[in-house]
Write a structure and sequence with these properties.
The complex is a heterodimer of chains A (68) and B (163).
Chain A lengths: L1 H12 L24 H15 L16
Chain B lengths: L4 H8 L17 E3 L7 E3 L7 E7 L4 H17 L4 E7 L4 H10 L6 E3 L4 H6 L6 E5 L5 E6 L5 H13 L2
Parallel strand pairs in B: 3-4, 4-5
Antiparallel strand pairs in B: 1-2, 3-6, 6-7
Classes of the chains: A mainly alpha (68), B alpha/beta (163).
């Protein structure tokens, strides 16, 4: 039983895939972004960080493109 | 553990795969061109010229900056034996064509939706440009593209043209 379970977990590993830089077209689509409006999100971050007296931790800017 | 070692080495082998390093011969390339019908373009046919091989995608911001600058360089320096060859890595051909309608250029733009050539060159991001000398060797790898990069590239291209 545990062998079968181990095998199933190992098979799951095959689903892990590195997205290559040239395969990021779909990820760069607007509907794939975390924020619907980048400018609005930056403004909110600015206010948030000034109130919290901290910055960073909100992840990197840009989406999908392997260039920045 | 000693029995595991060969397997471990095999797992790490793909990481050691070399792309197009500086001084190395540029990997061969033969792709369909997006403009003017169904012609093909290959690096071999451009041997003897200084070539700027540009990997780009329609969804990449800096590529939008690079196109007009590369087109200017091509227009100025092509009589002296300089050629630009752009390769779109868009998965959909129509995306690349829409980009070209917006920013038309005078140099050939090829399409590789399967990702075979960017893999061969070990491209790390878009855009990446490879400056290839008259003997087909990679002499410079240019990653990303900013406003003044065209002028910087120009001096490198001229240096190779005068060799």
């Amino acid at each position: 039983m545990s062998r079968v379970l181990g095998l199933i977990i190992l098979l799951g590993l095959a689903g892990c895939e590195t997205v290559q830089p040239w395969e990021r077209g779909s990820l760069a689509q607007e509907e794939m972004q975390w924020q619907p409006d980048l400018l609005e999100a930056r403004l909110r971050d600015q206010v948030h960080f000034s109130k919290e007296a901290s910055s960073g931790g909100a992840g990197a800017a840009g989406g999908g493109c392997g260039c920045n | 553990m000693p029995r595991l070692l060969p397997g471990l080495v095999l797992c790490l082998l793909p990481l050691a795969a070399v792309g197009a390093g500086i001084g190395q011969p540029a990997p061969a390339l033969d792709l369909p061109v997006l403009q003017n019908g169904a012609a093909r373009v290959s690096l071999a046919s451009l041997r003897g010229k200084v070539v700027y091989l540009d990997f780009w995608a329609s969804w990449c911001g800096p590529c939008r900056v690079s196109f007009p600058q590369l087109d200017d360089l091509h227009e100025e320096l092509s009589p002296r034996g300089f050629e630009v060859l752009a390769v779109s890595v868009d998965e959909t051909r129509e995306d690349a064509l829409a980009f070209l309608r917006e920013l038309p250029v005078g140099y050939p733009v090829a399409w590789d939706g399967g990702g075979v050539t960017p893999q061969a060159y070990d491209v790390l991001g878009m855009p990446t440009g490879y400056l290839i000398d008259r003997d087909g060797k990679v002499r410079l790898v240019h990653r990303g593209f900013r406003r003044g990069d065209g002028a910087r590239l120009r001096s490198e291209i001229v240096k190779l043209l005068e060799e």
